[in-house]
Amino acid sequence: MSDLLLDTHILLWLMNGDQKLTKGNQERIEETVNSGARICLSAISIWEIGMLVSKGRITLSQPVNKWIEQAIEVSSTKIIELSREILLDSCSLSGQFHGDPADRMIVATSRITHIPLITQDEKILPYIEAGFCLK
Fold it and tell me: Domain containing 113: what range?
């Protein structure tokens, strides 16, 4: 099994035991971990979580720095930095893709690294299903 890139909301749901995380996605994450492959996260997801906290859109069980540190440690998550290639790819995604910069960078991270993206985002799923990004 290959590594797996988590969308921001997937990490949040996983760490908080949220029932919104589908059983299929939960099993896929478990299979990835059990196979020795890595769970990955785009660096932009750290920014996105920080912004959600600062805007009061989510509340975490502890300060955001501690929560992210624990989430990375507990899930043995590898952070994928935003390279020049990822940043540029996010500006010219094939097909039609919406304008959210974080979503664009997460999708570009998957495309450039060839790591499948796991998401439940209704705006990203059609893009994956169209074959523009690994699933």
Answer: 4-129
